[in-house]
Amino acid sequence: MSSKPAKEWEALHEEYRAYRTGHARLLEVTAQIKSAISRRKEGIIIVAGPTRVGKTTLLVGVINSIISENLLEMERDPGFIPAALMEAYAYKRGYKWSDHWYGCLKALNEPLRNKKSAGYNILPNRDALHAAADHKYEREDILRRSFENAAKHRRTSIFGVDEAQSIVVGSSLDMHRANAEVIKSVANTSGALHLLCGNYDVLDLFNLSGQIGARTGRPIHFPRYTTSAKDLVAFKAVVLNLTSVMPVQEPPRFDGVLDYLFERSLGLIGLLNIWFSEALGDVLENGRKTVTANDLEKCEPPEAVLDKISQEIIQGEQRLAQDGSTFALIKARMSFGAKFNEARWKEGEGNKLLEKKSESRVAASALPGVNAEPNDTVPSKKTGKARPRRNGKAFERAPARDKVGEGRNNRIA
Fold it and tell me: Which domains, from first to last, does the chain contain?
């Protein structure tokens, strides 16, 4: 039986579950996001990482730091909200934007969000003729416009969306670009830079078109800890921090099982925190003095779960990796222009095509007065002035003005 009253050990356990530690990887990615915010000021920033790496902790920390930096201005203007965040909800089919905008209004403390409903046209700068047409908008449109206006009036510069992969999960591939365009449009209209944070599925919102890719920039990766010497040292520091704050009589000693902890947590601090919380809860409930390796083994993450998460990690890291192989394809596209045959390139004839193109440039540059450009072709060997083209029919004299007065001059002579 437990040596502590039920309410007491549950409170201690809940306090530990809510504890978050500022580790090296978290601080590193936070600095990257803050730097990207200061550079871009508008548009979209995508932050992707594996499940249970600590993305929610990251996003909450970024938003809170922005609020802390603006506390004096918020005291002068109670309506000023420099940054806010909401969590995107997941649905079985498609994404419910009306619920999304309602969550956005709630994040901005909009007092009349429950009163928004479909009604007459509320768009600005509409003339009387259009208003008289009794044009009505759906609730989704009303909520979206309300959020855009609220963000302007609140002077919100940063708006975070946690679990942003929910926007694409359950929707067709054709809808991914439409969803990204919606977010981009709202970010531009409201003036609030949108910080989309989620697992690797959120990358489906990136690079759907040249315009979206250029406005979002390269996604920021929140990676796991790896087996590098530097990462292992940082991971050990996290383990020591998490064990030192456990509310037990004797601090746990996990120095001899660090490799085991790293393997079972996959280098994910969020997963490690959940694991430790489960083991601690079992110890507190049963009144034991400390958490041992046996307690950890009893509560370790299931093998099937680790297998699935590890697959998602590798697939996500491969999506973000850049090995330079695509640049050859990009160079070929720009070199050949509209004549480029990508199918032949992918079949393995890329080098032959580039060599042939290079030979054509060399031949063109060898001719006098010719400057080889990327889209130049070898000019014709025919020289001399081109013969003018006849527009009339064969054997038909071209129209011309005949001389007049010749007969009179001959008679006078």
Answer: 20-221 (3.40.50.300), 245-311 (no CATH), 325-366 (no CATH)
pLDDT in tens, the chain (413 residues): 445 556 789 999 999 999 998 899 999 999 999 999 998 878 899 999 999 999 999 999 999 999 999 999 999 999 999 999 999 998 888 889 999 999 999 999 998 887 776 554 444 554 544 444 444 457 788 899 999 999 999 999 999 999 999 998 877 777 888 888 899 999 999 999 999 999 999 988 876 555 555 556 689 999 999 999 999 999 999 999 999 999 999 989 998 899 999 999 999 999 999 999 999 999 999 999 999 999 999 999 999 999 999 999 999 999 888 656 666 667 777 777 777 777 776 676 555 555 555 555 555 555 455 444 444 443 444 445 555 555 555 556 666 666 665 555 555 54
Contact predicate 275/300, CB 8 Å: yes
Q: pTM score, two decimals? A: 0.74
Label residue 358 exposed, middle or buried (CB < 10 Å: 0-12, 13-18, 19+). Answer: exposed
Give the span between the Cα atoms of 291 and 249, in whole angstroms. Answer: 10
